[in-house]
Amino acid sequence: MSKVKSPSIAVIAADTPAAQEALTELEARYSLVPPEEADVIVALGGDGTMLETLHRYMDHKTPIYGMHRGKVGFLMNEYEADSLPQRIMKARSTALHPLRMKAATISGETTEALAINEVSLLREARQTAKIRIIVDGVTRMEELTCDGVLVATPAGSTAYNCSAHGPIIPIDAGLLALTPISAFRPRRWRGALLPCTVEVVLDALEYDKRPVSAVADYTEVRDVTQVRIREDRSISLKLLFDPDHNLEERIFTEQFTP
Predict the structure, then answer these.
(1) Is-same-fold flag (9-96+236-254; 99-231)?
(2) Catalytic center residues
(3) CATH 3.40.50.10330 fits 9-96+236-254, yes or no
(4) pTM of the complete model
(5) Radius of gyration of the CA atoms of the chain, in A
(6) Which residue, 9, 65, 145, 258, shows the most beta carbons closer than 10 Å to its own?
């Protein structure tokens, strides 16, 4: 019987004492390779480190296995230095598709960016924002007066979206969350669940006196007039999770967390 070859492993660590200590331990135990040569990239830190690693190595299409050495670790596995290659080979793969944002600004420039968690529009000044919501060419809300509004992926539905009282979405539901942030008018609107195939257009109304910024994960565009958002199914990001604590189960469990 032929022996299964262990994957070549690269490690990326956050610049924190806990993550750097873990990196030193893994370097002493395993023959690590550069990320460009790896079969799997191990990310040490919190969810921020995971998002940065996914963005940085998106073009490489290399699976990412996170281990929690930071603050928030929803996208991470528990840290354990022992038997790392064996854990990786047993891990379950979850595919994520990012949102593609196209933001037009007052100056006429257009910026594109990808978001794994969410795209959000946020007021820049003391006045509330006024936003028109268009879904697949149909105006669904002529004017939303609010601090902002966001579109979240299932993976991102447990992050900012959850803090804004948006719904938590199972990872394979094929849905996006459209969630207002501190809605003033209409006061009782709590958002919508949308098919992942739609294009959402958010128009900033009265943008000259109510400036709005657009944020795709950690890419910010100031003074936007319009933002177009759709899921980019041509990009598939692979996250690896231990079988007994996979991402699908975490998101499902989160719906029942008090």
Answers:
(1) no
(2) 47
(3) yes
(4) 0.90
(5) 20
(6) 65
